């Protein structure tokens, strides 16, 4: 596993498909796992994420009671298996070529990539 993508969510039904669709489009060229960590959403966020998880075996959803984004990130890190971890929060936007751009830097001596 090269990249673990940790997506933290909370009541994010309006945007989550955009993130997941962008990642799914890029998957075939990358060895990734996607860990969606839901922080107790009350809307249809979990339902939408479950649909993606059922369709794509590299997408996993983890739910827990509302405790904040920091705990969600830590849970995602604990479950990750990748050499590198990429965080996406519910107010972020991922470009359609983000994994390609990031992959270019993974072969350098960079300690951190933003």
From TrEMBL:
CDD domains: Glyco_tranf_GTA_type. GO terms for molecular function: transferase activity. Keywords: Transferase. Residues 4-110 form the Glycosyltransferase 2-like domain. Gene3D superfamilies: Spore Coat Polysaccharide Biosynthesis Protein SpsA, Chain A. It comes from the Bacteria. InterPro entries: Glyco_trans_2-like (IPR001173), Nucleotide-diphossugar_trans (IPR029044). PANTHER family: GLYCOSYLTRANSFERASE. This is Glycosyltransferase family 2 protein.
């Amino acid at each position: 596993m090269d990249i673990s993508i940790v997506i933290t969510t909370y009541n994010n039904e309006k945007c989550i498909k955009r993130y997941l669709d962008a990642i799914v489009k890029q998957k075939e060229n990358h060895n990734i796992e996607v860990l969606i960590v839901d922080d107790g959403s009350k809307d249809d966020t979990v339902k939408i994420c479950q649909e993606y998880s059922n369709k794509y075996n590299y997408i996993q959803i983890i739910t827990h009671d509302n405790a904040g984004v920091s705990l969600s990130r830590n849970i995602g890190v604990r479950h990750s298996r990748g050499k590198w971890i990429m965080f996406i929060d519910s107010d972020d936007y991922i470009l359609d070529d983000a994994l390609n751009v990031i992959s270019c830097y993974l072969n350098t001596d960079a300690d951190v990539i933003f």
